[in-house]
Design a protein that fits this description.
heme biosynthesis, Tetracycline Repressor, domain 2, UbiA_prenyltransferase, 14 helices, 323 residues, Protohaem_IX_farnesylTrfase
């Protein structure tokens, strides 16, 4: 019996088709974007965000991120077909056609824009579209295949979701919103480069100049440590001068930052150690999730206790048994 060759036009079960489109959106990446968006909304609303607005904004953010990731898959399908970890994706394997992927991405982007424009405001809708444009135009098209600093500059796309969340709540962008942007922006290189160190052979095979490929593990590890060193004080700017969260968040930020710095320094001692790079990559994800959780919980606690961030530490100190 002749072997059946699967093409994009071969009829398939709808469950399999949905799974392929789901994979195009890179859902694991989307989850982290949504966590940063939700945290920004809680802080912007001073702990009392509308559940309906939160739901609509997160749904819109998922659609916008899914659109950007799908276009990324579409653009990179040539190198994805060569790289070991990506060659089984829907586009290089032929399970989804380029036209189908493009229409899917445009549909997701349109849904995101309409939902935000109707139920939030035009600023948040435009910011969501800007995030797609930066990820596709600046990172994927311009920098990814041309500069070892691709993830540094292109990382701005991943820092836009908290701006979307902040704008959805307030209709504007305060200094605190831009500090959230800066936190994600500075966190992105020490988050992504350990992964790049693990799969640098794949990147070298397709001539993508990721920093470990161009400058080696030792330089990459030093850069990771320096960015992590800058991340810790940046995360504390939300307390002072912004004054939007209190020292409950601050203590968590210091503890998490210390753990991040320790692992980054540990990697600089043996830059070629893949297990250290893997540990740092995993911790970077946990760091961002817990940091966002800490700022949201701190802001909600302040709202429940009817405290301002400036008086939180003084009030909590008074509650201690030895005070």
């Amino acid at each position: 019996m002749p072997e059946t060759i699967l093409t994009a036009t071969t009829p398939r079960a709808w469950q399999s088709l949905l799974a392929d489109y789901w994979q195009l959106t890179k859902p694991r990446l989307i989850l982290l974007f949504l966590i940063t968006t939700a945290a920004a909304m809680v802080v912007a609303s001073e702990g009392t965000v509308s559940p309906w607005l939160l739901l609509v904004t997160l749904l819109s953010g998922a659609c916008a991120a899914g659109a950007a990731n799908t276009i990324n898959c579409l653009y990179d399908r040539d190198i994805d077909a060569i790289m070991e970890r990506t060659r089984h994706r829907p586009l290089p394997s032929g399970r989804v056609s380029p036209l189908e992927a493009l229409l899917f991405a445009l549909t997701l982007a349109a849904i995101a824009f309409i939902l935000l424009a109707v139920f939030a405001n035009l600023l948040s809708a435009c910011l969501a579209m800007a995030g797609i444009a930066v990820y596709v135009g600046v990172y994927t098209h311009w920098l990814k295949r041309s500069s070892p600093q691709n993830i540094v500059i292109g990382g701005a796309a991943g820092a836009i979701p908290p701006l979307v969340g902040w704008a959805a709540v307030t209709g504007e962008l305060s200094w605190a919103a831009w500090v959230l942007f800066a936190i994600i922006f500075i966190w992105t290189p020490p988050h992504f480069w350990p992964l790049a160190m693990l799969i640098q052979d794949d990147y070298a095979r397709v001539n993508v100049p990721m920093l470990p490929v161009v400058d080696g593990d030792a330089t990459t590890a030093r850069q990771i440590f320096l960015y992590t060193l800058a991340l810790v004080p940046t995360s504390l700017l939300l307390i002072y001068p912004c004054g939007v969260v209190g020292w409950g968040y601050g203590l968590a930020a210091i503890a998490l930052g210390g753990g991040f710095l320790y692992r980054a320094w540990h990697l600089t001692q043996v830059p070629s150690d893949k297990e250290r790079a893997r540990s740092l990559f995993k911790f970077s994800i946990l760091y961002m999730m817990l940091l966002c959780g800490a700022m949201a919980l701190d802001r909600m606690l302040l709202a429940q206790l009817d405290l301002s961030p400036a008086t939180e530490l003084q009030t909590l100190t008074c509650l201690l048994p030895w005070s």
